[in-house]
Amino acid sequence: MTLIEQIDKDYIVAYKAKDDVKKTVLRHLKTAIKNRIVELKGAELSDDDVLDLVAKQIKQRKDAYEQYIAANRPELAEIEAVEAEALSEYMPVQLSPEELAAAVDKVIADLGASSMQDMGKVMQAIMAAHKGQVDGKALSGLVRARLS
Q: What digits encode the pLDDT tens for the residues 95-117?
């Protein structure tokens, strides 16, 4: 079963169960998927493409959460946090800090990276090898620390 089929199935289950949070989140995700298909002129989306859309939706919710916290709106921030958590179910398991550090060290050694000029290469290699399993902000900080 593809990720799109799983999302459609989960949407129907959430609709029947009257799970408003999941229903709303999946409706937004399905819209993003359809918009992406239209952008690609009807081309099929792979699971990796869908994972990119899910990651983008999660990032938007996390950004909104931070903005609501800064604006002293905890009730709205809580909604964003719950929605981000619901979307997280579709992402692969995130690498632990130890696994991430090991992956960074391995890629730096494999590429022979030694300065900040190599940061882009290292980031790109890790993001490609661990698609959806790495938080870009955490990775950036770790790579920067290792290369400085």
A: 888 999 999 999 998 888 888 88
Other beta carbons less than 10 A from residue 114's beta carbon: 9
Contact indicator for 25, 87 with CB cutoff of 8 Å:
yes
> How much is the average pLDDT of 55-72?
95
Query: Residue 135 and residue 33: Cα distance in Å, rounded?
Result: 22
Instruction: Pick one of 3.65.10.10, 1.10.150.240, 1.10.1510.10, 1.10.3470.10 as the CATH number of 3-88.
Output: 1.10.1510.10
Cα–Cα distance, 2 to 118 (Å, whole number): 36
Residue-wise pLDDT tens digits, 19-54: 999 999 999 999 999 999 999 998 899 988 999 899
| Prediction pTM value | 0.78
